[in-house]
Amino acid sequence: MFLLIFLKLTALKRKFQADCYPDVRTKNELAKNLGLPAGVIGEWFKNKRQKAREESSRNSRINN
Protein backbone atom coordinates (compact mmCIF):
# COMPACT_ATOMS: atom_id res chain seq x y z
CA MET A 1 0.00 0.00 0.00
CA PHE A 2 2.74 2.47 0.96
CA LEU A 3 4.67 1.71 -2.23
CA LEU A 4 1.59 2.40 -4.34
CA ILE A 5 1.02 5.77 -2.66
CA PHE A 6 4.72 6.61 -3.02
CA LEU A 7 4.65 5.78 -6.74
CA LYS A 8 1.53 7.89 -7.31
CA LEU A 9 3.05 10.85 -5.46
CA THR A 10 6.29 10.48 -7.38
CA ALA A 11 4.38 10.57 -10.68
CA LEU A 12 2.46 13.68 -9.59
CA LYS A 13 5.61 15.45 -8.43
CA ARG A 14 7.37 14.72 -11.74
CA LYS A 15 4.43 16.13 -13.68
CA PHE A 16 4.38 19.18 -11.40
CA GLN A 17 8.06 19.86 -12.08
CA ALA A 18 7.41 19.69 -15.82
CA ASP A 19 4.19 21.75 -15.72
CA CYS A 20 2.55 23.12 -12.60
CA TYR A 21 -0.55 24.13 -14.63
CA PRO A 22 -1.51 20.98 -16.55
CA ASP A 23 -4.43 21.17 -18.94
CA VAL A 24 -7.63 19.18 -18.47
CA ARG A 25 -6.51 16.44 -20.85
CA THR A 26 -3.27 15.92 -18.91
CA LYS A 27 -5.12 15.83 -15.58
CA ASN A 28 -7.59 13.30 -16.99
CA GLU A 29 -4.74 11.13 -18.28
CA LEU A 30 -3.03 11.28 -14.89
CA ALA A 31 -6.29 10.39 -13.15
CA LYS A 32 -6.80 7.39 -15.41
CA ASN A 33 -3.19 6.20 -15.10
CA LEU A 34 -3.09 6.61 -11.32
CA GLY A 35 -6.60 5.34 -10.63
CA LEU A 36 -7.70 8.57 -8.95
CA PRO A 37 -10.60 10.93 -9.66
CA ALA A 38 -9.71 13.91 -11.89
CA GLY A 39 -10.92 16.26 -9.14
CA VAL A 40 -8.35 14.83 -6.74
CA ILE A 41 -5.61 15.44 -9.31
CA GLY A 42 -6.77 19.05 -9.81
CA GLU A 43 -6.87 19.70 -6.07
CA TRP A 44 -3.44 18.16 -5.61
CA PHE A 45 -1.95 20.53 -8.21
CA LYS A 46 -3.75 23.52 -6.67
CA ASN A 47 -2.47 22.67 -3.18
CA LYS A 48 1.05 21.99 -4.47
CA ARG A 49 1.16 25.38 -6.25
CA GLN A 50 0.02 27.10 -3.04
CA LYS A 51 2.71 25.34 -0.99
CA ALA A 52 5.33 26.27 -3.59
CA ARG A 53 4.27 29.94 -3.40
CA GLU A 54 4.41 29.90 0.40
CA GLU A 55 7.83 28.29 0.39
CA SER A 56 9.11 30.77 -2.18
CA SER A 57 7.79 33.66 -0.09
CA ARG A 58 9.38 32.22 3.05
CA ASN A 59 12.73 31.78 1.30
CA SER A 60 12.71 35.33 -0.05
CA ARG A 61 12.07 36.71 3.45
CA ILE A 62 14.96 34.66 4.83
CA ASN A 63 17.32 35.88 2.11
CA ASN A 64 16.46 39.56 2.66
UniProtKB/TrEMBL annotation:
Domain Homeobox span(s) in chain numbering: 8-55
Signal peptide positions (record): 1-18
GO MF, any single term: DNA binding
DNA-binding region: 10-56
Localization: Nucleus
Keyword Cell membrane: no
PROSITE patterns membership: HOMEOBOX_2
Keywords linked to the UniProt accession: DNA-binding, Homeobox, Nucleus, Signal
Name of the protein described by the UniProt record: Homeobox domain-containing protein
Species name: Meloidogyne incognita (Southern root-knot nematode worm)
